[in-house]
Amino acid sequence: MNLLVIVTILASFSVNVALSRRKKGSSPKPRGTFKQMCLSGDGSDYRGYVSETTRGHSCLNWNRFPHPWGPSHGLGNHNYCRNPDRSLTPWCLVRREKRIVRELCNVPKCSTPTVKPPPAADTELTCGERSERRMYKVVGGSFTPIESHPWVAAIFHRRQKFLCGGTLISPCWVVTAAHCFSDGDETNLRDMTVYLGKTAINETDADKEQKFTVERLILHQQYNDTTYNNDIALLRIKSRSGGCAVKSESARTACLPPPHTRLPAGIQCTIAGYGMEKFMAWHYSQYLKEAQVKLISQADCKRKLYYGDLITENMFCAGTPDWSTDACNGDSGGPLVCEVSGRMFLFGVVSWGDGCARENKPGVYTQVTNYNKWIAAKTGLPKYTQGLMYPAK
Ligand SMILES: *[C@@H]1O[C@H](CO)[C@@H](O)[C@H](O)[C@H]1NC(C)=O
Ligand SMILES: *[C@@H]1O[C@H](CO)[C@@H](O)[C@H](O)[C@H]1NC(C)=O
Question: Which residue among 179, 220, 331, 351 is the active-site one?
């Protein structure tokens, strides 16, 4: 016991001696600003403590040799690398085979401060805004910049082959049609790429585009590939860095309307997609196009003349009175959005139709507002699916 106490006292004594000895012996370190502690430019304002050369030699104390420089150049009673004469980079004097020579030092560079703002994401309160409303009129639709439809997603299979359109509804989730995935749950997600901000299928604009892999594909469990009932699917997207969509002029979310919202027949809405060419056109239009279509009442669309009982309560029809424009092959999965109080709300997903722009055969769309609950359950995003931004009656 006594021995232990003595040992402890001795130990603390020797530590104190060591500490005070070190205090006495060490040279005062010159104070430097943060910037002076690393290499910026030629390092003439470097005031850090590197004291070894690139060759691995120890620097010698500056005061041991005559030189014309003083403390304003950072020199003094120490051996740290300095650049008083604006050489290439800080240096010091070393002893090499009985000679005193200059050697350059390897001072770590100042990394340029990367104070990136956190990537902006659309929230449920900023959906459905677009920065442009330009369009260029062509027969049966209009070319349009992606900024007019920033929620439009382009889904590719094996990089090259355009598969379907889609709609960004939250930074990580795209709504599309279930019928786009003919392999159903067997679909190989590794084959799929999703782009936002794409104006043309065959062109790349790195400034506008965002590219994603597909992390999850959720097909509606009651999707029927004969009747196209419940033709809806969700994709969870992931960028290379592991993030989701970043808000920009060319990539935004569309709003979801509240559950079971219906707009009256005759209301004009907008469809957008990379297809919309004539039926059987052997290639897609390549450029994003848009068209205005009018909602057709459920009763009208269920008439024999139109589609009869092929129309379920999970579908609705829209077209133009003169049947000139319609969604078509290649538009599948893309959005039908309607403007309400200055915001764009996703009401429909391009699903099917008998030909394209054929008389009495309007386009048929998945009734998105029947799926708010399903989307909330699958994505875990109850706020996005409440329809918060929809004006209260
Ligand atoms: C993309 O396709 C359009 C129409 O097919 C064509 O005019 C254009 O030159 C193509 N662009 C590129 C980069 O291949
Ligand atoms: C699809 O719907 C048809 C008609 O209602 C029905 O006969 C068929 O069994 C359904 N298929 C599936 C896979 O549910």
Answer: 179
